[in-house]
């Protein structure tokens, strides 16, 4: 069923006519056969079993390629990428429309990549344009300009986004000023702008090894680039456990670690096998505040383990709220998260304008078997109305499906309702959330007094994190959350929202002479 994941994650598919070998438009022909730039590859199309059906694909990033050679009236392109995935084109791509300089980076829409009738098994690209040099070389752009370019110019919106809420241009620009994803976005720009690629197979193996280092001592491989015989590994585990017969608690620990290691290895293996192991699918915990701000209302399911009552294990998360707040261990993020998710919402309660696509529903079924927690992250701010005592807000569209595994410091972005990647209309969604806070912050007074409130699991916190949000006895309403919302908005207005949510630096308040000091 994980075949569907490929489509939902924006995989670089061949169009249907490329998959079947049918030709597209007839070429003008002049000079196509004269080029020798693509003569070093197989002349056959990809085998059908190597091309995953793209029923769920409705919009994905533009293609980026590099000019390999030029002739009098045409060019040859190589190193073609779509997002972070390499396009399998059986050699270089013929470009009949414009002559570019060798080494230039160009872009074209995916639907303009078609079979080359002059060279069976090869491809041509029409309507090719040169990628702006400042985007191809991120170092030459300002941080804000780069952010806007990545979020707008290197992705193609889906028809799905015709339903999306329209956000004022000034608000979108302010969202860009906050540099969502920071240095991670710069690295992404470098990958797509230069045609370079990250060896995500090795990266996934490195993550696996750093998360479960003890498994290597028992001879288990971290390599996800090969098939694994789990039955053989299970038998080896039994033999290893015999050596710990006098240490029964160690046997329990080894078996638990092994099961979690094997589960994550299986996840990575399936992602690799079905070609969905992408840079923007593995989001480091550090950048989860960005994703959350875009889609702050969660519906979740999962198995966080049994309720723990032993004093020594009190700090282990009991539910998804504690689990997520522990991933970004600042007070600021924990408070912001609970403003929208104080009451946990079961996955079964998900409803509304966005009908989960059938393909993504298949992904969900598999994800529930793999991850400790699975969540649908939505821009449904009106759902938070129960605590805010006001549900009036025009919803935006395009939720995310995500998975969490304990002890793995990455959020797995498994799909999006539109079938696109992470970026389309993301800045709009960030701005919409901050507009919701700005226009409704007075309603935070309706939150109850002395709530069981997660304070944030930073290094200064000792003991049970579920502390009461204390209020003065004379208060009849919540007097704590609205001032916090003012701090949140001040951080956004100063372009430092995500530093604030990560608890990294002081941020100017609305009073320029004062600074927010973390409690």
Q: Span between N and C termini?
A: 47 Å
Oligomer: single chain
Number of strands: 15
Alpha carbon gyration radius: 25 Å
Major sheet size, sense and barrel closure: 8 strands, mixed
Helical fraction: 25-40%
Number of H- or I-type helical stretches: 18
Structural class: alpha+beta
Which runs of at least 5 residues are low in confidence (pLDDT < 50)?
A: 1-60, 305-316, 459-468, 507-519
Give the averaged pLDDT, no decimals: 75
Task: Sum up the overall morphology in one term.
Answer: globular
Residues in β-strands, percent: 5-15%
Can you describe what's shown?
34% of the residues lie in helices and 13% in strands. With 519 residues, it is an alpha+beta fold. The longest helix has 26 residues, at 248-273. The two termini are 47 Å apart.
Features:
alpha+beta; 5-stranded antiparallel beta sheet; 15 strands; 34% helix; 519 residues; single chain
Q: How do the strands and helices of this protein lay out in sequence?
A:
Blueprint: H1 3-8, H2 16-20, E1 63-70, E2 75-82, E3 85-86, E4 93-95, E5 105-108, E6 113-115, E7 123-125, E8 129-130, H3 133-136, H4 143-153, H5 169-177, H6 182-194, H7 200-211, H8 214-217, H9 230-242, H10 248-273, E9 282-284, H11 288-294, E10 297-302, H12 320-327, H13 331-341, H14 358-370, E11 373-378, H15 385-388, E12 400-404, E13 410-416, H16 426-440, E14 451-454, E15 466-469, H17 481-493, H18 497-501
Parallel strand pairs: 4-7
Antiparallel strand pairs: 1-2, 1-5, 2-3, 2-4, 5-8, 6-7, 9-13, 10-11, 11-12, 12-13, 14-15
Helix pairs in contact: 4-6, 5-16, 7-10, 12-13, 13-17
């Amino acid at each position: 069923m994980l075949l569907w994941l490929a489509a939902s994650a924006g995989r670089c598919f061949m169009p249907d006519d490329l998959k079947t070998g049918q030709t597209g438009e007839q070429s003008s022909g002049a000079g196509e056969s004269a080029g020798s730039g693509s003569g070093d590859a197989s002349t056959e199309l990809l085998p059908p079993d190597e091309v995953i059906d793209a029923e769920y694909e409705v919009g994905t990033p533009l293609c980026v390629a590099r000019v390999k050679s030029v002739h009098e009236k045409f060019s040859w392109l190589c190193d073609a990428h779509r997002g972070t995935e390499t396009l399998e084109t059986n050699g270089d791509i013929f470009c009949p429309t414009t002559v570019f300089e060798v080494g230039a980076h160009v872009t074209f829409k995916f639907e303009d990549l078609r079979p080359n009738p002059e060279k069976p098994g090869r491809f041509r690209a029409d309507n090719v344009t040169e990628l702006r040099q400042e985007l191809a070389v991120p170092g030459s752009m300002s941080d804000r300009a780069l952010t806007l370019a990545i979020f707008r110019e290197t992705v193609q919106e889906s028809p799905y986004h015709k339903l999306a809420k329209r956000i004022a241009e000034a608000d979108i620009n302010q969202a860009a000023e906050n540099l969502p994803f920071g240095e991670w976005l710069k690295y992404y720009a470098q990958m797509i702008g230069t045609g370079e690629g990250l060896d995500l197979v090795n990266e996934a193996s490195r993550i696996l090894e750093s998360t479960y280092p003890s498994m290597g001592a028992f001879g288990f491989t971290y390599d996800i680039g090969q098939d694994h015989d789990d039955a053989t590994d299970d038998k080896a585990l039994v033999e290893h456990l015999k050596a710990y017969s006098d240490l029964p608690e160690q046997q329990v620990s080894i078996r638990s670690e092994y099961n979690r290691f094997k589960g994550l290895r299986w996840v990575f293996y399936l992602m690799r096998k079905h070609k969905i192991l992408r840079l923007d699918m593995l989001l480091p915990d550090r950048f989860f505040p960005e994703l959350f701000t875009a889609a702050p209302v969660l519906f979740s399911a999962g198995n966080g383990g049994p309720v723990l009552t032993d004093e020594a294990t009190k700090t282990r998360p009991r539910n998804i709220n504690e689990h997520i707040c522990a991933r970004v261990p600042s007070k600021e993020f924990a408070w912001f998260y609970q403003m929208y998710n104080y009451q946990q919402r079961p996955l079964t309660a998900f409803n509304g304008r966005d009908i989960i696509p059938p393909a993504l529903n298949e992904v969900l079924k598999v994800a529930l078997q793999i991850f400790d927690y699975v969540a649908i992250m939505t821009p449904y701010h009106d759902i938070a109305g129960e605590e805010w005592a006001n549900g009036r807000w025009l919803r935006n569209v395009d939720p995310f499906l995500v998975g969490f595994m304990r002890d793995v410091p990455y959020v797995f972005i498994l799909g999006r309702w539109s079938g696109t990647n992470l970026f389309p209309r993301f800045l709009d969604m960030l701005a919409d959330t901050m507009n919701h806070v700005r226009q409704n912050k007075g309603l935070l007074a309706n939150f109850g007094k002395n709530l069981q409130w997660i304070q944030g699991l930073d290094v200064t916190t000792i003991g049970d994190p579920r502390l009461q949000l204390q209020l003065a006895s004379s208060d009849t309403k919540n007097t704590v959350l609205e001032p916090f919302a003012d701090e949140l908005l001040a951080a956004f207005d100063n372009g430092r929202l995500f530093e604030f949510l990560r608890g990294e630096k002081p941020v100017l308040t609305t009073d320029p002479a004062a600074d927010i000091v973390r409690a």
